[in-house]
Amino acid sequence: MGKPKPKSSTRRKFLLGALGATGALIVGWGVMPIAQRLDTENTFPPKEGEITLNGWVKIARDGTVIVAMSRNEMGQGVHTALPMLLAEELDVPLSMVSIEQAPMDKIYGDITILPGALPFHPDSSTGVFMRGAKWLSAKAARSFGIMITGNSTSIRDCWEPMREAGAAARAMLVAAAAKEWNVPAGECRTEDGAVLHGSGKRAGYGELAEKAAGTRPGKIKLKEPKDFKLIGHSQPRRDAPSKVNGRAGYGIDVRREGMVYAAVRMAPVFGAGVQQVDEAAVSGMPGVLKVVRFSRSAGSQAGVAVIARSFWQAKQAAAALPVTWDKGPNAGLSSDGIFKQLAAALDNDSGFTYYKTGDMDAGRNAAKTVRAEYRAPFLAHATMEPINCTVQVKDGEVDVWLPTQVPGLSASAAAKAAGVPLGKVRVHETYLGGGFGRRLETDMVTQATTIAAQAGGVPVQVIWTREEDMGHDFYRPAAIARFSASLDGQGGVLAYDNKSAGGSVSHHMMDRAFGLPKLGPDKYAAEGEFDLCYEFPNQHIAHVIVDSEVPLGSWRSVGHSQNAFFKESFIDEMAHAGGRDPVEFRRNLLQRHPRHLAVLNAAVEKAGAPAQGRAHGVALHDSFGAIVAQVAEVSVEGADIRVHRVVCAIDCGIAVNPDGVAQQMESGILFGLSAALFGEITIKDGKVEQQNFHNYPVVRMNQAPVVETVIMKSAEPPGGVGEPGTPPVAPAVANAVFQLTGKRLRSLPLKLA
Q1: CATH 3.30.365.10: which residues of the chain?
Q2: CB 389 within 8 Å of CB 251
Q3: H-run or E-run covering 412
Q4: 24, 368 contact by CB (below 8 A)
Q5: How many whole angstroms separate alpha carbon 713 and alpha carbon 129?
Q6: Residue 446's closest CA among 303, 270, 551?
Q7: CA-to-CA dists, residue 403 to 74, 145, 390, 441, 549, angstroms
Q8: Quick check: 741 and 635 in contact, CB under 8 A?
Q9: Rounded to whole angstroms, how far apart are CA atoms 675 and 680?
């Protein structure tokens, strides 16, 4: 049998085809402007004593400002930073602002994620084609109006509409006061929640709100950064007190009158089903009310649930329940087999070319050629709050209480599972005890609604044990990346080639959420590889999508999490092969990228020299609109890798809440370090081998490094901060280990033995 013919495609061909497929939209709907995001037919509903000024702002009689909160708090600080945007333009102290869950409406939908998913190189020319594709995707996102918290877009997406909402409300209040006092509006100013006039007149926003309601603000002007009083100035986290004193409400804390509990057992093999259940064996156990079967649906594995009066009773009965599982089609699946499949794909498939520039033949007469292969395993999210969802199905209506990143999709999942119209579903959002992409999924909603529909109208709280959580996640893909670089006699890079293989997160998520076919390239699979800031004159970057029987999902920083390790490790390999210092090597490749160079220099300067017996490793990575450089100070004792200190510099544009930015860098670094040193999900006989934190460990307090963060001053619009801190830490540590030992660790987790 001959060698299979390589497959290939181009980015432009794919995008033109995709846009052509929506030609009807381009002709009619597409030429219309993107709709405004301030007002809605389903107005931000006022309660007694409140006046609605636009879709984001209500004002109470006492002057309290109520802000529509369209993003979920999962530790990233959006319940502090987002109100700051509106309060800044409205001229009110943050202490006067409270938040309220936004109603389901398109004005709150995220229009930043979809344009960000287009596979364009950031240095590419901003031509008509690229601008058109981005505009159309933003228009589509606005039409879909999906409310979502993820991809580090909360601040980026709300930066304009929330500030505009505050500025519009301020203009309406000023106009109302000017009319009342019979003075020009231009003579009035605002301060601390009041309108003032030079004559000494003063009126609080609470006094003016009713008069301002329903008026048109006219042309509004947003503040210049130099005039910011809140934005750019650190504010204490508004959710911190309740999280310290225990009053914060997470999904697992929900308590409803008459509520019962359910524990689940799901098929251990991916895609398997329930063959037989001996319900009678547990029916007499304390508190047991009912045993319920559920089938595989929307990504949820098939399984059984025991409903009982307490979770402990449900858990004990579920563990004792005799269940016979069928083996399903994936009983022979293994990690070894999956990596062999990925390697074969790299051997036989040229993949999709995400970026190519120059002439790769420029490396034919190279003084030295450097080649390397890197690997990354599947990873679980392992959020501290295990998967849970509380549902009540009663009288044709459904109430859902849960920690979620996608309230709208959760409502749709519940409606479908219960067989009711979407308008009969109410979603009550709670704090998230960790999201990291896991709670972008709705499998727990489908499952809990199916169980609750058989509970006789009482609320049912479904909680997964850690073992069920670990074995039934949507995992970060396993991946392999191969690199080849041609160097000249001075260590300069003549040609750079990178091809990787792995599963597609987008294919899996779009199939689960919308039933869409698994077609086309996936920007998230190759992000962090094709969108290089390094100035190689001749480069080619491709990726091969290999479908996965292991369910895949977004994991904090998505493709950047593994691709930064691949790319930044190989950058070091090239530097050492060419006899160059790794920092100087990077500096020479960033001459046309001053922001990246400044971030790299800031991190290196802050880090200084390593302590005796330790070494520094450096990594630089651009993701989610932010540039991050990290220097890891590492020591090695035997096979033990110890990270003592990480210096992190970030340029995220305007840092809305600098303390919050620093906190997210610390969080992202520890999350990424856990994966770098310990994280690995392995598959054997079609099921996950890891069960709990004893064999899927995370960094403990005594292993946590000191983290020092440098925030670069910038007047650029905000970038993301929730995810960009995670990707650089693994390669920074690996590069430090090489400095100490001379061993190049090319697989995660990093192991010396």
Answers
A1: 50-110+145-245, 251-329+387-463, 335-379+475-741
A2: yes
A3: helix 407-418
A4: no
A5: 33
A6: 303
A7: 9, 20, 10, 11, 27
A8: no
A9: 7
Q: What pTM did the predictor assign?
A: 0.94
d(CA 389, CA 449): 9
- Shortest CA distance to 65 belongs to which of 78, 84, 81? 84
**Rounded Cα distance, 156 and 111, in Å:** 10
**Cβ–Cβ under 8 Å, residues 384 and 692:** no
Q: How far is CA 444 from CA 149, 419, 523, 664, 691, in A?
A: 17, 17, 27, 27, 19
CATH, range 251-329+387-463: 3.30.365.10
Name the CATH code of domain 50-110+145-245 (choices 3.90.1150.10, 3.40.50.720, 3.30.365.10, 3.40.50.2000): 3.30.365.10
- Tell me the two tokens of residue 235: 């504010």
β-strands 479-487, 260-266 pairing: unpaired
CA distance linking residue 32 with residue 24, whole number of Å? 13
Residues 6 or more apart whose CB falls under 8 angstroms from that of 86 comprise 56, 57, 65, 67, 97, 162, 163, 165, 166
Q: pLDDT by residue (tens digit) across 617-647?
A: 999 999 999 999 999 999 999 999 999 999 9
pLDDT digits (tens, 9 = 90+) for 340-360: 999 999 999 999 999 999 999
Measured CA to CA, the distance from residue 641 to residue 504 in angstroms comes to 32
- The angle at the Cα of 380, spanning 244 to 271, to the nearest 5 degrees, equals 130
Angle subtended by helix axes 205-212 and 154-181, to nearest 10: 90
Instruction: Find where tokens 């303390």 sit.
Output: 659
Per residue in 495-539, pLDDT (tens digit) is 999 999 999 999 999 999 999 999 899 999 999 999 999 999 999
Angle CA(449)–CA(453)–CA(454) in degrees, nearest 5? 130
Phi-psi category of 306—alpha, beta or left, where left has phi over 0 and alpha has psi -120 to 50?
Answer: beta
Whether the upstream peptide bond of residue 407 has omega within 30° of 0, thus cis, is no
The Cβ-side half-sphere exposure at 594, using a 13 Å CA radius, reads 1
CATH number among 3.40.50.1820, 3.40.50.10260, 3.40.1190.20, 3.30.365.10, domain 335-379+475-741: 3.30.365.10
The pLDDT tens digits for 117-160 are 999 999 875 677 788 888 888 888 888 899 999 999 999 999 99
* Residue 524 tokens, joined: 């998230």
> Exposure of 243 by Cβ count < 10 A (0-12 exposed, 13-18 middle, 19+ buried)?
middle
* One-character DSSP codes across 527-574: TTTSS--S--SSEEEEEEE---SS-B---TTTHHHHHHHHHHHHHHHH
